[in-house]
Amino acid sequence: MRSPFHSEPEAFRFVLLLTLALIPVVLAAALGPTWLALAVLAVVLGALALRVAQLRMRKLRGLELPVKMAPPHMGSAAERRVLVVANDTLSEEALLTEVERLASVPRTHVLLLVPALISPGARLTGAVDSLLDQARLRLRTALDRVGHDLVVAGEISEADPLEAIEDTFATFAPDEVIVSTRWERAASGLEPRLAGLVRERFAVPVRHLVFEPGAAAQEPDKDIEARYRHEFGEAAARRFGLKALAGVGILAAVLMSMVALVQSSEREEARAASQAAAEQAALPPVATVVHLSVIPEYKRGPEGEKHDAFTTTEFAVRAGQPQELRIDNTDSVPHSITAPAAGVNIVVMPGTHTYTLLVKQPGTFLWFCTFICDEWAMQHPGYMSGYITVS
Predict the structure, then answer these.
(1) What is the CATH number of the domain that holds 328?
(2) How crowded is the C-beta side of 219, counted as CA atoms within 13 Å?
(3) Same structural domain, 100 and 189
(4) For 108-167, what is each residue's pLDDT tens digit?
(5) Domains contained in the chain, number
(6) Is residue 73 a part of any domain in this protein?
(7) Residue 75 — left, alpha, or beta (φ > 0 → left; ψ -120 to 50 → alpha)?
(8) 349-378 residue pLDDT tens
C-alpha cells in the first residue's frame, strides 16, 4: 500500500483531508449528545470509504499500474538472467525443455519462482503448510528433471504472485520474465492475466507461455490478452466491491452497536441521577446552621448529680455538605467535638465562635470531648458525647 506521506504534497493533502473530516465530528461531539457524534463519524467514514472504493474500482477496471524502470543489470555484459514463474504447469515437459534450452545457453542463469497461491481462507484456517509443501515438491521435481545446478536455481513464495515477482526483481534482477499459465485459471494455477500485469509493471521483456497437459507451449495473441485484461479487471473489481460492501456492513454494525451502547449508558446515567435525586428528596431535612452551647454542670445525670454538657449532642448532616456550628462555650476552658472515624476534630474555644462540621462519608459516628473535664460526661452520649448522623 502506498504511504500517504510518500511526498510533501501527498502528506499535505492527507492531513488536510483528515482535518476536514474531523471538523464535523468534533462539532457534533461539542454541541450534541454522544450518539450524534458517532452518527456524524459514521457518515464521514462512509463518504470516505465510498470515495476510496470508487477510485479503487476505477483503478482495477483500468489496471492503472505504474511502469517501473528495469533493474540494473547484474553480472557481466554478456550474462543473461531469466525468471520463470510457474505453478501447476511446472511439470509440463514442454516448459522443462524450454528451461533446459535456456540453461544450455552460455552465461545464462535461470531462476524458477513457484508462488504457493495461498488464499485468505487458507491463511485463516491454517492450511498454509500443505500448500507450501506442494510448491516445494513441484520445484524439487522440476530442478531434478532439469539439472544444470550451477545455472538453474529455484525458490517458492507464499506472497501474492505479483508481489513475489517484485521481490525477485530486487534480488535476482532478471533481464527477461517467462510466465507460465493455463488458458483458463485453474484452482491451483496462476492467473492468465499475470503476464499482462508483469508487462505493465516491469520494463523488461515478458513472454507468456500457455500450456495444456501434453501439448506444446503457445503464446496468446493480443485479442486473448485483451480478454484476460478485461475479465481480470472485472473480477478484481467485483471482489473488491464485495469486500468493500462487507467492510461497510461491519462498520455500520459496529457504529450502530456503539450508538446503542452510548444511548443505553446515557439512559442508565439519567435513571441513576433521577433515582439519586429522588433519594435525596426523600431524606429528612438538615439544618445549615446549628446553635448550641457548652455549659458546665448543665445537665443532671441518672445519679442526680449535674454534669458538663453540650446543649445539642445529635448532629444530622449531608455527606460532603458543610454545616455551620455556632457554639457558645460558657466554660473557661476549651472542649472539643472529636469523631476519629468521621475525620472530625473541632476544638471549641471559650466564648462564641462559628465552626464547620464536614463529613464526606455517610454513616453514624460517635463523637466525644477530648479535653479532660467531666470524666463521666465524656463517656456518656447526651452530655459531652453524642452522635453525628451523615446521610
Answers:
(1) 2.60.40.420
(2) 8
(3) yes
(4) 899 999 988 877 777 777 778 888 888 889 889 988 888 777 888 889 888 888 888 888
(5) 3
(6) no
(7) left
(8) 999 999 999 999 999 999 999 998 888 989
